[in-house]
């Protein structure tokens, strides 16, 4: 979903400033003349923060007021009863956002207004302003709807909730169920949309936006976007994060996950998923129906940024504990998508060097979705196979006439490097030709067939048959010439896989040189040139397989044995071009 600029500002105002170091805030605010606010010059907002349960105040929570235009207001902390007093200038409106102590993202919010109020007044009269999971849902609705009279809209929504509105009550009840387990487990995740919008667009410490140097105190993923040919950057590439390479762009709010599915599904929330889903048993349909009604375009904006600077670098505040894919495309070529797999990170850990290139895309869009298991290790093997590869470009009158495969003597696996070279040549030719082709489909077709099919390229409405033929001719000539030069046979390379098997002793973890590894498979086309394999002095055996399917994974069985140890059998999935690691530990 893409919100208007004002809506994004409003959403950012709820949470964006919470990612700043709290110690830098004075605890007060200043008037327009630069003078500190006092109860005589400001309106006092008296409120209470609770987790939604009848008697569960949030003690020592930090609360901020941020105006609808993004201007930071006062800060206050809650007492042992969860109560606070906050000073706000008259004729202001915006959002109060409160986080439990030690947390940056698990925010509760509410909409507040001092319009028509006078300095020295305390609001709301005779009661406390509620900040809770239920007001957070109301606040998000107000932020996305942008009503002309926001205070009246808030009153109307609260009245609808009190009346049991079936399009609102299931969402609020679900939010109330979700928040306490998150807080109890210390899971500092984005509870609503504001943190996601701050991370994806604000050029601040929240970690996103258009600043290449942006970062987040909680870490994230960063890298450069390049066409891979002589390190040519892709300027102003639009980058998003997704849990699947072809899935929807990720929205950081855990409420988005809960509301869209009627239950908790996110991998990083599995510690509390069982408890929450059990409490919401039987309510899935009511939640998803209400969500579709109240939020027809989704709950917030996706995690997104623009790669900037001389090297087209990006930063995305990808939540800790989630693996997924960073996807980038040139600003005017939406279908020319590159992707890189990003492993799950620890809280506070920055993942640097997550470069988005055609070579990375070959792994991330072709190998990763098929293999699925232990992707970080398989990715590391792939990168080690092609490390040192360079793609040279020969131009004539400003037009690319040839791609050259360079530094072949420095790569670990010439065959895998040739595949990466082919994927890079295809992308660079499309990018330089300003063709908005479906690169992911074309790249996978290249891996399966060993050649670029111009008819497939021409299926895209943005590519003519003449343009498709020109690209195919350029790439096919380049990759075939490169194959001859490096001694690679494309049809063999594209059907070869490797299995690395470290064999160790249980308990001591010592490597077992001389262990035997036997492979078995029901796939008749598989051929192993060095089976049975024997582990080297480091206790590692490497099996090379030919005749491996290119478009689907196959299962093989590995049995390791060594004198004085019991044999052990494991199974794994393999795919052509991939190098998978299968550690085996033997018991005495």
In short:
The protein has 15 helices and 26 strands. With 588 residues, the protein is α+β, with helices and mostly antiparallel strands.
Topology record:
Blueprint: H1 5-15, E1 43-49, E2 62-67, E3 72-77, E4 83-88, E5 93-99, E6 108-113, E7 122-123, E8 129-131, H2 133-145, H3 150-162, H4 169-184, H5 193-201, E9 220-224, E10 238-242, H6 254-261, H7 270-279, H8 284-294, E11 304-306, E12 313-316, E13 324-329, E14 338-342, E15 350-351, H9 358-371, H10 375-386, E16 390-396, E17 399-406, H11 414-432, H12 439-449, H13 454-457, H14 465-486, H15 490-493, E18 497-505, E19 516-520, E20 527-528, E21 533-534, E22 540-546, E23 554-562, E24 565-574, E25 579-581, E26 584-586
Parallel strand pairs: 1-7, 1-8, 9-15, 18-25, 18-26
Antiparallel strand pairs: 1-4, 2-3, 2-5, 5-6, 9-12, 10-11, 10-13, 13-14, 16-17, 18-22, 19-21, 19-23, 20-22, 23-24
Helix pairs in contact: 1-2, 1-5, 2-3, 2-4, 4-7, 4-8, 6-8, 9-10, 9-11, 11-12, 11-14
CATH domain fold name of the domain at 5-184 = Immunoglobulin-like
Helix content: 25-40%
Strand % is: 15-25%
- Write down how many β-strands occur, each being a DSSP E stretch of 2 or more residues: 26
| First-to-last CA distance | 57 Å
CATH H-level superfamily of the domain at 5-184: Carboxypeptidase-like, regulatory domain
What is the radius of gyration? 28 Å
Overall outline = globular
């Amino acid at each position: 979903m893409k919100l208007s600029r004002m809506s994004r500002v409003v959403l950012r105002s709820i949470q964006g400033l919470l990612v700043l170091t709290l110690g830098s805030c004075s605890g007060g605010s200043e008037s327009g003349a630069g003078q500190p606010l006092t109860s005589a010059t400001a309106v006092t907002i008296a409120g209470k923060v609770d987790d939604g349960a009848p008697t569960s105040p949030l003690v020592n929570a930090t609360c901020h007021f941020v105006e609808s235009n993004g201007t930071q207001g006062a800060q206050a902390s809650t007492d042992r009863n969860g109560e606070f007093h906050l000073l706000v200038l008259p004729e202001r409106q915006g959002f109060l956002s409160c986080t439990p102590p030690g947390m940056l993202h698990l925010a509760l919010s509410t909409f507040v207004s001092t319009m028509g109020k006078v300095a020295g007044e305390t609001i709301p009269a005779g009661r406390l302003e509620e900040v809770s999971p239920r007001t957070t849902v109301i606040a998000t609705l107000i932020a996305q709807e942008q009503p002309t009279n926001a205070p009246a809209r808030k009153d109307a929504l609260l009245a609808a909730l009190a009346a049991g509105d079936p399009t609102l009550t299931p969402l609020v009840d679900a939010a109330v169920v979700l928040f306490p387990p998150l807080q109890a487990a210390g899971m500092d995740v984005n509870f609503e949309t504001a943190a996601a919008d701050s991370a994806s667009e604000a050029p601040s410490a929240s970690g996103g936006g258009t600043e290449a140097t942006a970062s987040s105190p909680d870490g994230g993923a960063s890298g450069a976007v390049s066409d891979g040919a002589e390190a040519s950057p892709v300027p102003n590439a639009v980058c998003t994060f997704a849990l699947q390479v072809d899935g929807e762009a990720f929205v950081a709010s855990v409420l988005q996950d809960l509301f869209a599915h009627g239950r908790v599904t996110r991998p990083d929330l599995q510690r509390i998923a069982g408890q929450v889903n059990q409490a919401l048993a039987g309510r899935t349909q009511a939640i998803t129906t209400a969500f579709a009604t109240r939020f027809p375009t989704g709950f917030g904006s996706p995690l997104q940024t623009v790669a900037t600077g001389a090297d087209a670098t990006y930063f995305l505040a990808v939540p800790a504990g989630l693996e997924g894919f960073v996807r980038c495309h040139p600003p005017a070529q939406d279908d020319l998508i590159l992707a890189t797999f990003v492993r799950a990170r620890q809280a506070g850990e920055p993942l640097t060097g997550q470069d988005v290139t055609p070579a990375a895309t070959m792994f991330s869009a072709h190998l990763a979705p098929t293999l699925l298991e232990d992707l970080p290790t398989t990715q590391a093997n792939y990168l080690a196979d092609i490390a040192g590869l360079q793609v040279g470009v020969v131009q004539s009158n400003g037009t690319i006439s040839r791609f050259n495969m360079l530094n072949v003597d420095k790569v670990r696996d010439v065959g895998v490097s040739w595949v990466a070279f082919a994927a890079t040549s295809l992308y660079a030719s499309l990018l330089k030709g300003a063709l908005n082709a479906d690169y992911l489909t074309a790249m996978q077709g290249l891996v399966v067939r060993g050649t670029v099919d111009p008819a497939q390229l021409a299926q895209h409405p943005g590519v003519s048959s003449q343009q498709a033929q020109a690209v195919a001719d350029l790439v096919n000539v380049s990759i075939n010439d490169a194959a001859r030069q490096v001694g690679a046979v494309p049809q063999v390379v594209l059907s070869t896989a490797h299995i690395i098997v470290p064999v160790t002793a249980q308990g001591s973890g010592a490597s077992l040189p001389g262990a035997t590894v036997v492979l078995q498979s029901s796939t008749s086309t598989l051929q192993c040139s060095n089976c049975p394999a024997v582990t080297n002095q480091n206790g590692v055996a490497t099996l090379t397989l030919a005749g491996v399917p290119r478009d689907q994974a196959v299962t093989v069985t590995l049995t390791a044995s060594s004198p004085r140890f019991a044999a052990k059998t494991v199974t794994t999935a393999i795919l052509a071009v991939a190098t998978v690691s299968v550690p085996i530990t033997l018991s005495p």
